[in-house]
Design a protein that fits this description.
Blueprint (H helix, E strand, L loop, with lengths): L17 H21 L7 H8 L3 E14 L10 E14 L3 E10 L4 E12 L3 E7 L2 E6 L2 H4 L3 E6 L5 E7 L1 E2 L6 E3 L3 E3 L14 E11 L2 E13 L5 E16 L6 H27 L2 E4 L2 E2 L2 E2 H13 L8 H8 L3 E3 L4
Antiparallel strand pairs: 1-2, 1-14, 2-3, 3-4, 4-7, 5-6, 6-15, 7-8, 9-10, 10-12, 11-12, 12-13, 13-14, 15-18, 16-17
Length: 333
């Protein structure tokens, strides 16, 4: 969202000249008239902000995904996927119009810490990064009137590179706070991306809703096969997903918070790289590997060394040198 702020602060001083006084009064009137014109959009409703911020905290999470309908002859539904973990969601940025939350997951007895996904909510966002399939993304400009009163949700991969983004409107009637996205292209989920090659895009509608015990992330997904030109060839199955985040007490999240305290400066610089890329480029591709090394592996090795106090946080230029080879600007379709 772009906001043009105008600060019209004029002090009327006592003067013997009525002409000067008239000119100053005229300037105040002009500033008062122009202010609503020059400030784009509006302030986000506090109910929306509270609903988004309510997704932060300490949770036990239940992941549930099940293919429900085969959409092609001969397709056999895969086994349901269920998993549970503990996850802390930390607010790492809040400017009023934009809220960013980092998810950090722990498994087992908490000894294994995984920097998970990150979600950034932006009020009346006109620039949306959309997944195209085959490791490619495009940035779409939306007219301000189309996104008026809406929030975008930008979700990143574990390495802070873009994953998917969409927009929708928070609703609160009936004592029920929820948000629903537009149909959104997403890369294959991590539970399937190393196991399946029979589809390229997970087309889904995301629903976030608060509950008495926390919140839920519901998904209505279609598994989509695309042609070489990126168009839809067919859908092979429908899938229902429900991730349940339930508040939990008396669980030790200190390994997760210790990890974030040690590495947050590094990940902040990594995020800054992607923010700059998405703000200045209209399309890009992220290569899966270079010399059999993925970008996730390259960045997490550095983060682990920082966490273990084996090295200092690298500067922006060094981080850019690591990420740049994996990024192709304006790739061919």
């Amino acid at each position: 969202m772009r906001i043009l702020a105008l600060n019209c602060e004029i002090t009327l001083m006592k003067t013997k000249s009525s002409k000067i006084l008239l000119q100053k009064c005229f300037m105040i009137a002009i500033c008062s008239f122009l202010l609503p014109v020059l400030v784009e959009g509006s302030e986000p409703p506090e109910k929306d902000r509270k609903a988004i911020l309510a997704m932060a905290g300490e949770f036990q999470v239940f992941f549930n995904f099940e293919e429900t309908v085969p959409l092609q002859k001969g397709y056999e539904l895969k086994k349901p996927y269920t998993e549970e973990a503990h996850e802390i969601v930390i607010v790492i940025g809040d400017t009023g119009n934009q809220i960013t939350m980092q998810h950090i997951l722990t498994t087992g007895n908490g000894s294994r810490v995984v920097k998970h996904w990150k979600q950034t909510w932006t009020w009346e966002d006109t620039r949306i990064t959309e997944f195209q399939g085959n490791q490619k993304w495009k940035v779409r400009e939306l007219p301000a009137e189309k996104v008026k009163g809406t929030w975008s949700q930008h979700v990143t991969q574990v390495d802070d590179s873009p994953r998917y983004e969409s927009w929708g409107r928070w609703k609160h009637d009936g004592g029920y706070s929820r948000w629903e996205s537009k149909p959104t292209n997403r890369p294959l989920p991590r539970r399937e991306h190393t196991k399946r090659s029979d589809y390229q895009i997970l087309l889904g509608v995301n629903r976030h809703a608060l509950t008495p015990h926390g919140w839920v992330h519901g998904q209505d997904n279609l598994k989509k096969v695309i042609r070489e030109d990126g168009g839809t060839a067919r859908y092979i199955a429908r899938e229902a997903g429900l991730n349940e985040y339930e508040h939990i007490k008396d669980h030790d999240f200190s390994p997760a918070t210790d990890y974030w305290t040690a590495t947050k400066d590094f990940w902040s610089k990594v995020s800054a790289y992607w923010h700059h890329l998405e703000a200045n480029q209209s399309s890009f591709e992220i290569l899966k590997e270079i010399d059999e090394v993925s970008l996730v592996k390259a960045l997490f090795e550095i983060a682990d060394e920082i966490n273990e106090k084996k090295r200092e946080v690298p500067g922006e230029d060094e981080i850019a040198k690591i990420i740049d080879p994996y990024v192709v600007i304006n790739p061919s379709t």
